[in-house]
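Preliminary data (for renewal application), pyridoxal-5'-phosphate complex.
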Amino acid sequence: MFILNNSNPVPLYKQLYNQIKEHILSGKLPADTRLPSVRNMATELSASRNTVDGAYQELYAEGYLYSKPRSGYFVSALDQDVAPEVVSVKPGKNDYLPGPPSNFTYDFHPARLDPESFPTELWRKCFVESIRRNGKQLVQYGDTQGDWGLRCSIQSYLERSRGVLCDPDQIVICAGLQQSLEIVSNILKTNHSVVAVENPGYHLPRSVFQSHSYSIVPVPVEPGGINIKHLKASNSTIVYVTPSHQLPLGYVMPVANRLALIEWAESGDKYVIEDDYDSELRYHGKPIPSLQGLRPTGNIIYSGTFSKLLSPALRLSYMVLPYSLLAVYRQIYRDYFPSVSLLEQRTMTAFMEQGHWERHIRRMRMIYKKKHDILLQSVETHFGKRAVVVGQGAGLHVVLMLPETSHSETEILGRAQQKGIRLFPFSDFHVTGKPEATTLLLGFGGMSSSDIERGIAVLSQVC
Ligand SMILES: Cc1ncc(COP(=O)(O)O)c(C=O)c1O
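Predicted structure:
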């Protein structure tokens, strides 16, 4: 009558509890029906007695069953008219969660990291240390703005590696860019309503600001980054930019344009949001220092993440607020609790303090440089003059322009899919307009070197 499923994440006793409860509520098990003994039910279900006993005890405690000494458990009489309705939860598709991994042989999605790259052993060691050392802190809420130790470690890392100048006081630990932008939307909404974004550019900031009722102004991107003239001509008072590695085109904003952007922000109560998401991954030449470092006292909100080098699943990122926004941030968020687990924050602190983070970055840079170089070599071999590569030399993706192809992006994506290749549509980055030539985005982080070579060879046949 009852079926328990070992591969279901719901505990077995709970599965049995749910099924018996449903039978009682729907009248399939009428009042005063005697349930099989714990031992018989366990044998019938090939389950342990603990499983059955756990289910019976819970049903008894909630009044669905009553017991008679030496006779066992019986179904209680429930008034069917007032009994809660049975809602059967059918396993269905949840559109909000990513589906099961698809069977792509070659996955060029730009947000994939190397599958072997997570430093499991070191992370485990730091995690265990954090549990041992922080027992007393684990029984209370932490600081909303983020753990002080982690903020200090991030501050000194940012100063050394990105030229960001700030106090730990200005750092807010977040669970990803989306949360940072939610906070920014909230703290700026009294005096601001229009946000400029790069076009083409990352879609997430657009949707966060739109959901907070801001209007979005797309501003064209050029090899020098966002077009400052267009920005100045717009009525926006906030701009979101990726100046050190423009997403998706990979351009680096030159210092003259950075200064112009800073000036724009200073020409009134305006703000630049600098998303420095993957600038540790620069393979040739020197890393480009942050825009924030050029004017640490300016109206610049700096955002960084551990998603690109360590793990996007951890949900660990940070933002540096200018002093001018700290008071309003604290006022709005003073009743909030932190959204990142203290254990995760302390683990990250230990990981940074013990030097693992910077060693990890060096290791990742080598791994991804190799994949990046193989990708470029393969494009050269298989596409030759048919493709123009844009935005190479950094990050986890490059852009391929195909001026000679007669196929549209949709056709190429479809043809590629038939050959087992997954491509992220470049057109998704466009708010308005489209590129002059068919353009593809090739993420290489999650692929092995040999799959990159083979994937590019196959891709070249469908373009
Ligand atoms: C431009 C950009 N910024 C930030 C992120 C990282 O966001 P998060 O910290 O939410 O993982 C990504 C991830 O793909 C990105 O593409």
